Amino acid sequence: MSKLDVLTPENSQVIFIDHQPQMAFGVQSIDRQTLKNNTVALAKAAKIFGIPTIITTVETESFSGHTYPELLDVHPDAPLLERTSMNSWDDQKVRDALAKGAAEGRNKIVVSGLWTEVCNLTFALSCMADTEYEIYMVADASGGTSEDAHNYAMDRMVQAGVVPVTWQQVLLEWQRDWARKETYDAVIALVQEHSGAYGMGVDYAYTMVHKSPSRTQHTGKTLEAVPAAPLAIE
To answer: What mean pLDDT value characterizes the chain?
Structure first.
C-alpha cells in the first residue's frame, strides 16, 4: 500500500480521539460548533461506507467528560476505549483495535481528535514509528489550543509523513464515482446537512434546476406578497 493509493472503503479505518467537552473547551484553532459539525459528518461518512470506527476517551469521569452525544448517536454500538495516557498508542486496546482493521488490509488510519498538538501528534508519531500504517489527519475535524498550536502540530506531522486531509475530502474520496448508486443518496444527504454552501448549492440545484421536491415537509401556507399602503403624512 502506498500514499499514492487513494482512500477507499476497503483500505481505511477511522479513529476519533477524545472528542469530549473539557477537551473541546480548550480549542481555539477552529470554531467549536464547526468542529463538532465536521467531526459528526466524518463519523456519518464512515458509517455510510461501513468503515470500522474506533472511539477513544481519556479520563472521562475525572476530567474530560463524556463523548459528544451526536458522535455516539452515529455509532451507538462502538466501544469507548478509555485511557489514562494522552497518547492513545500507549493503550493496548487501541493497538489491538487498529491491528484488527489492518489485518483486513485497512492500513490507512483516518484520525480526528483533540488536541492536535498533543493527543493527535503523539499518537501519529508513535503509531508510525512502530508500524507500517499510514496516518491521514483530518485537520478540520481536529482542534488545538491555539491556531499556532494546531498549525505547527500539523506541520510537524506532515514533515514526519502524515497526510493532511479534510472531512469532506475523505468523504468524496471514499465515494469517488457518482455512479456508485448504493451510497449516492446517503452521501448527498450528508452533504446537504453538513457541507454548508456546498449543501445549499445541492439543494438549489435539485429544487430549482431539476425541479425535485424540497427535502423538507413544510405544511404551512405560502402567503403571497401584499404591497403596503403608503403611510399618511400629517
So the answer is: 96
CA distance 176 to 184: 10
The SS3 call for residue 110 is: strand
Cell 466501544, located at residue: 79
d(CA 165, CA 133) in angstroms, rounded, equals 16
Contact 154, 20 (CB under 8 A): no
Instruction: Tell me the C-alpha distance between 192 and 188, whole Å.
Output: 6
Rounded to two decimals, the pTM is 0.93
Mean pLDDT calculated for residue range 64-68: 97
Distance between CA atoms of residues 16 and 209, nearest Å: 38
Give φ, ψ of 13 to 5 degrees. -140, 160
**How is residue 123 written as a grid cell?**
499518537
One-letter amino acid of 69: P
Distance of alpha carbon 72 from alpha carbon 43, whole angstroms: 9
